[in-house]
Every structure is written in structure tokens, then in C-alpha cells.
Amino acid sequence: MIVVAGESLIDLVPDGAATPLSPLLPRPGGGPYNTAVALGRLGAEVAFCSRVSTDAFGEALVDGLRASGVLDGLVQRGPEPTTLAVASVGPDGSARYGFYVEGTADRLFALPERLPEEVRALAFGTCSLALEPGASAYEALLRRESERGAFTLLDPNIRPALIPDPAAYRERFTAWLPYVSLLKLSEEDAAWLGGTPAEWLQHGPSAVVLTRGEAGLTVFTPSYEVSVPAVRVEVADTIGAGDTVNAALLHGLADRPPASLDAGEWKDLLAYAARAAALTCTRAGAEPPYGHELGA
After folding, report:
1. Residue 22, CB half-sphere, CA atoms under 13 Å: how many?
2. What is the mean pLDDT of the chain?
3. How many other C-beta atoms can be found within 10 angstroms of the C-beta atom of residue 237?
4. CA atoms within 13 A of residue 267's CA, in its CB half-sphere
5. How much is the pLDDT for 94?
6. Is the peptide bond before 178 cis (omega within 30 degrees of 0)?
7. Phi first, then psi: what are they for 82, rounded to 5°?
8. Spatial separation of the C-alpha atoms in residues 291 and 247, rounded to whole Å
9. Are 228 and 22 a contacting pair, CB within 8 Å?
10. Are 135 and 159 in contact (CB under 8 A)?
11. d(Cα 97, Cα 74) in Å, to the nearest integer?
């Protein structure tokens, strides 16, 4: 079983022409939530670990998990409101966000006493690792499960507006790396963090996957690097594309540790992730593909 730990929220996405007063459509979102949904749609056994509101948006988020085959037994519930993210979509389909996070349910996540014994991998990232007090609980879960021997994926998915002290966050990010098996991040994340794949590999991960938008994906290992091109599609928006890459990597790795893959196997895995992300980009909002759409 794969566990995805982190926030869920509602993306408010412009409907039609992107003007300041465009109607906004509510869509399920949040990097970890999207990753869990994508894993479920790809056919993985996956559970979501988070705190979700009992308001109407929260009910819709839980319904979305179930509809995609994601187990919700690790979901904590609370009466606090659901986090909102207002998206603005650029001409190239890229999205930027304004967040409404004060007093919301996902910030109050508490460290679970234990996870099921069958959990073999966990994924972390995005707002959940930046917003206290939940961030410390997620960090404790990362450290505990990594020390237990679980495979861990980290996607920092940086949201600068939610990080009041960038220097402190960068130090914290470096402290997470010894507990991370696979680091996946975008070129924009890498630029903001100010490091390099070679430096990050020295701190613990077996591999670093860098997403480069239209230029494709590259994996860096201590021995080699491999790149694949992006799949050309007509882009509706890029919301959820990086989260779909997370899911495709986790699903495609199965029980194989990253260090066991040779260059050819990495090329195949990255190509699979690129196809999955491309399909997500053809749809408005975070709508990851199903396994049958990828021939899997």
C-alpha cells in the first residue's frame, strides 16, 4: 500500500476567459490529494492521510477519493473550513495561486499513532510541509516511517506565498533529505531552493527527478542522468501535472528501489510519467488519467 500524506483543498479555477472577475469553478485539489487520486486511477492500492473538513467542500473531497479508489481510513475529520486556493491561469496554461488557509482543517493534522503494516511507500509535499502546526506532524511522520524502512517520495512543490521565512524553510528542507528515498521537484522549485541535484543526492535521496515543463523530465542518480522529452499536447492548464508525475513514478516503481533501476528502466519510467502528465494537461483542473488511458 502507498500512503499519500498532506493537504486537500478546493481550487477555484477561472471558467473561460481569464479576467479578474471571471467566474470561478470549485475543483478538488491540493498536491497530495491530486497525487492520491492519480494513484487510485492508475490502479495502485493507495490511502490518503490528512485532516479534512466536515463542511460541504470536505464531503466532496472525501467523495472524490472514494470515487477514484483511494482508501480514506487514515483521513482525520474536523469542523474547521476547507482551505481554498484561487488559481489564475496564464496563456501557457501554467497556474498561480492565492491561498485562504487561516484556521482550516488540514493545518490541524495530528501524527497518527501507527500506519498499517502493509504500507510500503509514502509521499509528502506542498502546503502541508509549510503550514504549522500540521507541518511538524507531517515531518514527524516522514522521519518515523523512513526510519521504519518505508520508501519515501518528497515533492516540495514550493508555494512562496505560504513561506514567511524562506531561509528557515530551506534549512528544514535540507534536514528532510536523509529521510527521502526519491526527491521530485520542478525547475522552479529548484531555483527557489537554490541547490542542485548533485548536492541533494549527497544528503540522502537515491535519485532526484526534475520536471522541466515543455523540456520534459530528467532523473539524476549518483552514476548517471537520463532525460525524456515532454509529450506534445494541446494544453488546457497544467494544474495537477506535477502531482500526476509523482503518482506515475510511485506506481511505476512498484517495489523497486530507485537505486536498482538502470538507465533504460529510468527512461521507460520517465516516459510513462510524461505521458500521464500530458493527459492531465489536456483537461481543465487536476484530472489525472486512468490506467487504461496509458495502456496500463
Report:
1. 16
2. 92
3. 22
4. 9
5. 63
6. no
7. -80, 140
8. 11
9. no
10. no
11. 28
As given in the structure block, the three cell numbers for residue 180 are 527521502
Give the pLDDT confidence of 213-237 residue by residue, as tens digits: 889 999 999 999 999 999 898 887 7
Residue tagged 543526492 (cell numbers): 201
Mode of pairing for the β-strands spanning 225-228 and 217-220: antiparallel
Cα dist from 221 to 182, 250, 260, whole Å:
10, 17, 11
Query: Are residues 70 and 37 in contact, defined by beta-carbon separation less than 8 angstroms?
Result: yes
Sheet harboring 84-89: ordered strands across?
24-29, 9-14, 84-89, 95-100
pLDDT at 88: 73
SS3 letters for the chain?
CEEEECCCEEEEEECCCCCCCCCEEEEEECHHHHHHHHHHHHCCCEEEEEEEECCHHHHHHHHHHHHCCCECCCEEEECCCCCEEEEEECCCCCEEEEEECCCCHHHHCCCCCCCCCCCCEEEEEHHHHCCCCHHHHHHHHHHHHHHCCCEEEEECCCCHHHCCCHHHHHHHHHHHHHHCCEEEEEHHHHHHHCCCHHHHHHCCCCEEEEECHHHCEEEECCCCEEEECCCCCCCCCCCCHHHHHHHHHHHHHCCCCHHHCCHHHHHHHHHHHHHHHHHHHCCCCCCCCCHHHHCC
Cα Rg for the chain, rounded, in angstroms?
Answer: 18
Q: What is the pTM of this model?
A: 0.93
Only one residue has cell 508555494, namely 159
Tell me which residue has cell 520542478.
186
Query: Could you tell me the three cell numbers for 80?
Result: 474547521
Q: What is the mean pLDDT of residues 43-54?
A: 98
Bridge partner list, 2 = 46, 121
